[in-house]
Write a structure and sequence with these properties.
26% of the residues lie in helices and 24% in strands. By secondary structure, the protein is of the alpha/beta class. It is globular. Bound molecules: iron/sulfur cluster. Iron/sulfur cluster binds next to loops.
Length: 360
Protein backbone atom coordinates (compact mmCIF):
# COMPACT_ATOMS: atom_id res chain seq x y z
CA UNK A 1 0.00 0.00 0.00
CA UNK A 2 1.28 3.51 -0.68
CA UNK A 3 1.09 6.39 -3.07
CA UNK A 4 0.82 5.76 -6.80
CA UNK A 5 3.67 3.55 -7.89
CA UNK A 6 4.70 3.48 -11.50
CA UNK A 7 4.59 -0.31 -11.91
CA UNK A 8 0.87 -0.29 -11.15
CA UNK A 9 0.13 2.82 -13.10
CA UNK A 10 -0.54 1.16 -16.45
CA UNK A 11 -1.96 -2.32 -16.12
CA UNK A 12 -2.76 -4.50 -19.16
CA UNK A 13 -6.44 -4.25 -20.10
CA UNK A 14 -8.66 -7.06 -21.36
CA UNK A 15 -11.36 -7.26 -24.02
CA UNK A 16 -9.91 -5.30 -26.90
CA UNK A 17 -8.88 -5.98 -30.50
CA UNK A 18 -6.07 -4.51 -32.55
CA UNK A 19 -7.14 -2.89 -35.81
CA UNK A 20 -5.41 -1.69 -38.97
CA UNK A 21 -2.46 -3.03 -40.94
CA UNK A 22 0.03 -2.09 -38.26
CA UNK A 23 -2.33 -3.19 -35.46
CA UNK A 24 -1.67 0.07 -33.64
CA UNK A 25 -5.31 1.15 -33.21
CA UNK A 26 -7.36 -0.69 -30.58
CA UNK A 27 -11.08 -1.37 -30.29
CA UNK A 28 -12.23 -1.64 -26.66
CA UNK A 29 -15.16 -4.00 -26.06
CA UNK A 30 -15.53 -3.57 -22.31
CA UNK A 31 -18.36 -1.04 -22.36
CA UNK A 32 -20.94 -0.02 -24.91
CA UNK A 33 -19.06 3.08 -26.00
CA UNK A 34 -16.95 0.60 -28.03
CA UNK A 35 -14.11 3.12 -28.39
CA UNK A 36 -11.69 2.94 -31.26
CA UNK A 37 -8.48 4.35 -29.79
CA UNK A 38 -5.43 5.41 -31.79
CA UNK A 39 -1.91 4.87 -30.51
CA UNK A 40 -1.19 7.33 -27.67
CA UNK A 41 -4.87 8.19 -27.12
CA UNK A 42 -7.37 7.35 -24.40
CA UNK A 43 -10.99 6.14 -24.47
CA UNK A 44 -14.14 8.08 -23.54
CA UNK A 45 -13.73 6.96 -19.91
CA UNK A 46 -10.31 8.71 -19.87
CA UNK A 47 -9.01 5.61 -18.10
CA UNK A 48 -7.85 3.31 -20.88
CA UNK A 49 -4.82 4.22 -22.93
CA UNK A 50 -3.43 2.79 -26.14
CA UNK A 51 0.33 2.52 -25.85
CA UNK A 52 1.88 1.15 -29.03
CA UNK A 53 -1.17 -0.95 -29.92
CA UNK A 54 -1.63 -2.38 -26.40
CA UNK A 55 -4.51 -1.20 -24.21
CA UNK A 56 -3.82 -0.35 -20.56
CA UNK A 57 -6.09 0.53 -17.66
CA UNK A 58 -4.84 3.44 -15.58
CA UNK A 59 -6.72 2.85 -12.36
CA UNK A 60 -5.92 -0.78 -11.63
CA UNK A 61 -5.12 -1.09 -7.91
CA UNK A 62 -6.19 2.44 -7.05
CA UNK A 63 -8.88 2.13 -4.41
CA UNK A 64 -11.17 4.90 -3.20
CA UNK A 65 -13.78 4.87 -0.47
CA UNK A 66 -12.93 1.53 1.15
CA UNK A 67 -15.68 1.04 3.75
CA UNK A 68 -17.76 -1.67 5.41
CA UNK A 69 -21.51 -1.29 4.88
CA UNK A 70 -24.69 -3.32 5.33
CA UNK A 71 -25.69 -4.94 2.01
CA UNK A 72 -29.00 -3.04 2.30
CA UNK A 73 -27.09 0.21 1.69
CA UNK A 74 -26.01 -0.78 -1.86
CA UNK A 75 -29.07 -1.30 -2.10
CA UNK A 76 -29.78 -5.04 -2.21
CA UNK A 77 -32.94 -6.04 -0.32
CA UNK A 78 -33.37 -9.57 -1.72
CA UNK A 79 -29.80 -10.78 -1.48
CA UNK A 80 -28.07 -11.95 1.70
CA UNK A 81 -30.00 -9.70 4.12
CA UNK A 82 -28.10 -8.27 7.08
CA UNK A 83 -24.68 -9.20 5.73
CA UNK A 84 -21.66 -6.88 5.81
CA UNK A 85 -19.88 -5.92 2.63
CA UNK A 86 -16.57 -4.29 1.95
CA UNK A 87 -17.15 -1.58 -0.65
CA UNK A 88 -14.71 0.17 -2.91
CA UNK A 89 -14.43 2.05 -6.19
CA UNK A 90 -11.73 3.71 -8.26
CA UNK A 91 -11.57 7.17 -9.84
CA UNK A 92 -13.37 7.57 -13.16
CA UNK A 93 -16.49 6.50 -15.00
CA UNK A 94 -17.76 5.86 -18.52
CA UNK A 95 -20.75 8.17 -17.84
CA UNK A 96 -20.82 11.92 -17.15
CA UNK A 97 -24.06 12.10 -15.15
CA UNK A 98 -25.02 15.71 -14.49
CA UNK A 99 -26.58 14.61 -11.18
CA UNK A 100 -23.70 12.41 -9.97
CA UNK A 101 -23.47 12.38 -6.18
CA UNK A 102 -19.94 10.93 -6.36
CA UNK A 103 -18.72 13.29 -9.06
CA UNK A 104 -15.48 14.13 -7.23
CA UNK A 105 -14.60 10.45 -7.67
CA UNK A 106 -16.33 9.54 -10.93
CA UNK A 107 -15.12 12.65 -12.77
CA UNK A 108 -11.78 12.86 -11.00
CA UNK A 109 -9.67 12.21 -14.07
CA UNK A 110 -11.48 14.91 -16.03
CA UNK A 111 -10.95 17.56 -13.37
CA UNK A 112 -7.63 16.63 -11.86
CA UNK A 113 -5.95 14.71 -14.75
CA UNK A 114 -4.67 11.21 -14.20
CA UNK A 115 -1.21 12.45 -13.20
CA UNK A 116 -2.49 14.46 -10.25
CA UNK A 117 -4.63 11.77 -8.68
CA UNK A 118 -3.48 10.84 -5.22
CA UNK A 119 -5.40 7.60 -4.92
CA UNK A 120 -3.58 5.01 -2.88
CA UNK A 121 -2.51 1.71 -4.36
CA UNK A 122 -4.30 -1.16 -2.69
CA UNK A 123 -3.56 -4.44 -4.44
CA UNK A 124 -6.11 -7.26 -4.76
CA UNK A 125 -4.20 -9.25 -2.12
CA UNK A 126 -4.42 -6.29 0.26
CA UNK A 127 -8.18 -6.16 -0.24
CA UNK A 128 -8.53 -9.91 0.37
CA UNK A 129 -6.40 -9.55 3.50
CA UNK A 130 -8.47 -6.60 4.73
CA UNK A 131 -11.67 -8.59 4.06
CA UNK A 132 -10.34 -11.55 6.06
CA UNK A 133 -9.25 -9.41 9.01
CA UNK A 134 -12.64 -7.66 9.15
CA UNK A 135 -14.61 -10.89 8.71
CA UNK A 136 -16.91 -9.39 6.11
CA UNK A 137 -19.37 -11.48 4.06
CA UNK A 138 -18.82 -10.08 0.59
CA UNK A 139 -17.32 -7.36 -1.57
CA UNK A 140 -19.25 -4.66 -3.38
CA UNK A 141 -17.65 -2.95 -6.39
CA UNK A 142 -19.36 0.40 -6.32
CA UNK A 143 -19.19 4.22 -5.92
CA UNK A 144 -17.87 4.66 -9.47
CA UNK A 145 -18.65 2.30 -12.37
CA UNK A 146 -17.15 -1.19 -11.79
CA UNK A 147 -17.05 -1.97 -15.52
CA UNK A 148 -14.35 0.64 -15.81
CA UNK A 149 -12.19 -1.08 -13.20
CA UNK A 150 -13.20 -4.54 -14.34
CA UNK A 151 -9.67 -6.01 -14.40
CA UNK A 152 -9.04 -4.78 -10.84
CA UNK A 153 -12.37 -6.17 -9.58
CA UNK A 154 -11.76 -9.46 -11.40
CA UNK A 155 -8.25 -9.79 -9.93
CA UNK A 156 -9.65 -9.06 -6.46
CA UNK A 157 -12.25 -11.82 -6.88
CA UNK A 158 -9.58 -14.26 -8.10
CA UNK A 159 -7.33 -13.30 -5.17
CA UNK A 160 -10.16 -13.82 -2.66
CA UNK A 161 -10.84 -17.26 -4.10
CA UNK A 162 -7.22 -18.32 -3.53
CA UNK A 163 -7.41 -17.66 0.18
CA UNK A 164 -9.22 -20.07 2.54
CA UNK A 165 -10.48 -17.18 4.67
CA UNK A 166 -12.02 -15.32 1.74
CA UNK A 167 -12.90 -18.03 -0.79
CA UNK A 168 -16.57 -18.06 0.13
CA UNK A 169 -17.12 -14.29 0.01
CA UNK A 170 -19.80 -13.12 -2.40
CA UNK A 171 -19.10 -10.39 -4.97
CA UNK A 172 -21.58 -7.81 -6.22
CA UNK A 173 -21.52 -4.96 -8.75
CA UNK A 174 -23.49 -1.75 -8.38
CA UNK A 175 -23.47 -0.68 -12.01
CA UNK A 176 -24.87 1.66 -14.65
CA UNK A 177 -25.39 -1.45 -16.82
CA UNK A 178 -23.48 -0.01 -19.77
CA UNK A 179 -21.27 -3.09 -20.05
CA UNK A 180 -21.23 -5.23 -23.20
CA UNK A 181 -22.31 -8.76 -24.02
CA UNK A 182 -18.61 -9.68 -24.12
CA UNK A 183 -18.20 -8.45 -20.53
CA UNK A 184 -21.27 -10.42 -19.43
CA UNK A 185 -19.80 -13.50 -21.14
CA UNK A 186 -16.63 -13.24 -19.01
CA UNK A 187 -18.66 -12.67 -15.83
CA UNK A 188 -20.69 -15.76 -16.67
CA UNK A 189 -17.83 -17.98 -17.85
CA UNK A 190 -15.66 -17.20 -14.84
CA UNK A 191 -18.58 -17.17 -12.43
CA UNK A 192 -17.35 -13.83 -11.10
CA UNK A 193 -20.45 -12.24 -9.60
CA UNK A 194 -23.28 -13.26 -7.30
CA UNK A 195 -25.45 -10.18 -7.72
CA UNK A 196 -25.76 -6.95 -9.71
CA UNK A 197 -27.80 -3.85 -9.01
CA UNK A 198 -28.32 -1.99 -12.29
CA UNK A 199 -29.21 1.69 -12.35
CA UNK A 200 -31.87 2.18 -15.03
CA UNK A 201 -31.86 5.96 -15.22
CA UNK A 202 -34.33 6.92 -17.95
CA UNK A 203 -36.49 5.25 -20.58
CA UNK A 204 -35.59 7.97 -23.06
CA UNK A 205 -32.45 7.65 -25.18
CA UNK A 206 -32.13 11.43 -25.63
CA UNK A 207 -32.16 11.90 -21.84
CA UNK A 208 -29.50 9.20 -21.49
CA UNK A 209 -27.32 11.02 -24.01
CA UNK A 210 -27.89 14.49 -22.58
CA UNK A 211 -27.64 13.71 -18.87
CA UNK A 212 -25.25 10.74 -18.75
CA UNK A 213 -23.37 10.61 -22.06
CA UNK A 214 -24.58 7.00 -22.46
CA UNK A 215 -27.37 5.26 -24.36
CA UNK A 216 -30.54 3.50 -23.28
CA UNK A 217 -30.56 0.26 -25.29
CA UNK A 218 -27.28 -1.23 -24.02
CA UNK A 219 -28.58 -0.84 -20.45
CA UNK A 220 -31.87 -2.56 -21.32
CA UNK A 221 -29.87 -5.35 -23.01
CA UNK A 222 -27.71 -5.76 -19.90
CA UNK A 223 -30.78 -6.11 -17.70
CA UNK A 224 -32.17 -8.83 -19.99
CA UNK A 225 -28.82 -10.63 -20.19
CA UNK A 226 -28.28 -10.60 -16.44
CA UNK A 227 -31.83 -11.76 -15.82
CA UNK A 228 -31.15 -14.69 -18.17
CA UNK A 229 -28.31 -15.66 -15.80
CA UNK A 230 -30.63 -15.52 -12.76
CA UNK A 231 -29.71 -19.01 -11.56
CA UNK A 232 -26.23 -17.65 -10.78
CA UNK A 233 -26.57 -13.87 -10.58
CA UNK A 234 -29.22 -12.08 -8.56
CA UNK A 235 -30.53 -8.84 -10.12
CA UNK A 236 -32.11 -5.72 -8.62
CA UNK A 237 -32.87 -2.41 -10.38
CA UNK A 238 -32.62 1.13 -9.06
CA UNK A 239 -34.15 4.27 -10.56
CA UNK A 240 -33.29 7.73 -9.28
CA UNK A 241 -36.42 9.85 -9.60
CA UNK A 242 -35.29 13.32 -10.72
CA UNK A 243 -37.77 16.23 -10.72
CA UNK A 244 -38.75 17.27 -14.27
CA UNK A 245 -36.47 14.65 -15.85
CA UNK A 246 -38.11 11.27 -15.22
CA UNK A 247 -40.72 11.83 -12.51
CA UNK A 248 -43.90 12.00 -14.62
CA UNK A 249 -46.42 9.16 -14.34
CA UNK A 250 -45.77 8.19 -17.96
CA UNK A 251 -41.97 7.98 -17.28
CA UNK A 252 -42.57 5.67 -14.32
CA UNK A 253 -45.11 3.59 -16.27
CA UNK A 254 -42.68 3.13 -19.18
CA UNK A 255 -39.93 2.01 -16.81
CA UNK A 256 -42.27 -0.44 -15.08
CA UNK A 257 -43.58 -1.75 -18.39
CA UNK A 258 -40.05 -2.70 -19.39
CA UNK A 259 -39.26 -4.33 -16.03
CA UNK A 260 -42.49 -6.35 -16.11
CA UNK A 261 -41.63 -7.49 -19.63
CA UNK A 262 -38.39 -8.97 -18.23
CA UNK A 263 -39.86 -10.18 -14.93
CA UNK A 264 -42.18 -8.73 -12.26
CA UNK A 265 -40.00 -10.57 -9.70
CA UNK A 266 -37.06 -8.17 -10.11
CA UNK A 267 -36.94 -5.91 -7.02
CA UNK A 268 -37.22 -2.23 -7.98
CA UNK A 269 -35.84 0.62 -5.88
CA UNK A 270 -37.03 4.18 -6.44
CA UNK A 271 -34.40 6.45 -5.03
CA UNK A 272 -34.83 10.04 -3.86
CA UNK A 273 -32.86 12.69 -5.76
CA UNK A 274 -30.83 15.35 -3.92
CA UNK A 275 -29.22 18.27 -5.77
CA UNK A 276 -25.62 17.51 -6.77
CA UNK A 277 -22.97 18.49 -9.28
CA UNK A 278 -24.51 20.10 -12.41
CA UNK A 279 -28.03 19.61 -11.05
CA UNK A 280 -27.31 21.58 -7.90
CA UNK A 281 -30.30 23.88 -8.51
CA UNK A 282 -32.96 21.22 -8.75
CA UNK A 283 -35.18 20.49 -5.74
CA UNK A 284 -35.24 17.14 -3.94
CA UNK A 285 -37.82 14.64 -5.14
CA UNK A 286 -41.19 15.22 -3.44
CA UNK A 287 -42.30 12.41 -1.12
CA UNK A 288 -45.62 12.20 -2.95
CA UNK A 289 -43.87 11.61 -6.27
CA UNK A 290 -42.00 8.65 -4.80
CA UNK A 291 -45.13 7.26 -3.14
CA UNK A 292 -47.02 7.63 -6.43
CA UNK A 293 -44.17 5.92 -8.33
CA UNK A 294 -44.40 2.96 -5.96
CA UNK A 295 -48.20 2.79 -6.41
CA UNK A 296 -47.83 2.77 -10.22
CA UNK A 297 -45.17 0.06 -10.11
CA UNK A 298 -47.30 -2.14 -7.83
CA UNK A 299 -50.41 -1.58 -9.95
CA UNK A 300 -48.45 -2.67 -13.03
CA UNK A 301 -47.52 -5.93 -11.36
CA UNK A 302 -43.99 -5.40 -9.98
CA UNK A 303 -43.99 -7.50 -6.84
CA UNK A 304 -41.30 -5.84 -4.76
CA UNK A 305 -41.04 -2.04 -4.91
CA UNK A 306 -39.03 0.12 -2.51
CA UNK A 307 -38.41 3.79 -1.83
CA UNK A 308 -34.89 4.54 -0.69
CA UNK A 309 -32.34 7.27 -0.03
CA UNK A 310 -34.85 8.78 2.40
CA UNK A 311 -37.11 7.77 5.29
CA UNK A 312 -40.71 7.25 4.24
CA UNK A 313 -42.49 4.99 6.74
CA UNK A 314 -42.95 1.57 5.13
CA UNK A 315 -41.03 2.59 1.98
CA UNK A 316 -38.30 0.03 2.55
CA UNK A 317 -40.50 -2.83 3.79
CA UNK A 318 -41.08 -6.13 2.00
CA UNK A 319 -44.65 -7.43 1.88
CA UNK A 320 -45.87 -10.74 0.54
CA UNK A 321 -47.01 -10.18 -3.07
CA UNK A 322 -49.83 -12.68 -2.52
CA UNK A 323 -51.38 -11.84 0.88
CA UNK A 324 -49.60 -8.54 1.72
CA UNK A 325 -48.23 -9.88 5.03
CA UNK A 326 -45.32 -7.79 6.36
CA UNK A 327 -42.21 -9.92 5.77
CA UNK A 328 -39.31 -7.57 6.47
CA UNK A 329 -39.47 -4.10 8.06
CA UNK A 330 -36.46 -1.89 7.33
CA UNK A 331 -35.39 1.64 8.07
CA UNK A 332 -32.33 3.38 6.75
CA UNK A 333 -30.50 0.21 5.69
CA UNK A 334 -31.24 -1.68 8.90
CA UNK A 335 -33.69 -4.56 9.43
CA UNK A 336 -36.10 -3.98 12.31
CA UNK A 337 -38.27 -7.04 11.87
CA UNK A 338 -37.83 -10.22 9.86
CA UNK A 339 -40.83 -12.54 9.66
CA UNK A 340 -39.71 -14.74 6.76
CA UNK A 341 -40.27 -18.44 7.16
CA UNK A 342 -37.08 -20.25 6.16
CA UNK A 343 -37.00 -23.85 4.99
CA UNK A 344 -34.08 -25.56 3.22
CA UNK A 345 -32.40 -22.17 2.79
CA UNK A 346 -35.42 -20.76 0.94
CA UNK A 347 -37.64 -17.90 2.11
CA UNK A 348 -41.45 -18.05 2.33
CA UNK A 349 -44.33 -15.93 3.58
CA UNK A 350 -45.21 -17.30 7.06
CA UNK A 351 -48.94 -16.70 6.42
CA UNK A 352 -49.67 -18.03 2.91
CA UNK A 353 -46.40 -19.94 2.16
CA UNK A 354 -45.67 -18.03 -1.07
CA UNK A 355 -41.99 -18.39 -1.95
CA UNK A 356 -40.36 -14.98 -1.79
CA UNK A 357 -37.03 -15.70 -3.46
CA UNK A 358 -34.84 -13.70 -1.11
CA UNK A 359 -31.37 -15.21 -1.38
CA UNK A 360 -30.06 -16.18 2.04
S1 LIG B 1 -14.16 1.11 -21.17
FE1 LIG B 1 -15.72 2.01 -22.52
S2 LIG B 1 -15.25 4.20 -22.50
FE2 LIG B 1 -13.43 3.16 -21.72
S3 LIG B 1 -12.13 2.83 -23.51
FE3 LIG B 1 -13.37 0.96 -23.25
S4 LIG B 1 -15.17 1.29 -24.57
FE4 LIG B 1 -14.19 3.32 -24.26
Amino acid sequence: MGRIESEYYHHPAILYDRLGDEKKTVFCRLCSHYCEIKDGNIGICLLRKNIGGELYTMTWGRTEGLAIDPIEKKPFYHFKPETRVLSYGTPGCNFRCMNCQNWQLSQAVKYYSDKNLTTKVFLPEHIAEYAAINKIDGISYTYSEPTIFFEYARDTIIECRKNKKTESLFHVFVSNGFFTKETVDIIDKENLLNAINIDLKFMDDQKYKKITGGKLNPVLDSIKRIYDLRDNIHLEIINLVIPDENDKEEDIAKLCEFIVSVSPDIPLHFSRFYPHYKMGNKPQTEYNTLIQAKKIAKSMGIKYVYIGNTSIPGGEDTHCPNCNELLIARSRYGINENNLYINNNKSYCPKCSTEIGIIL
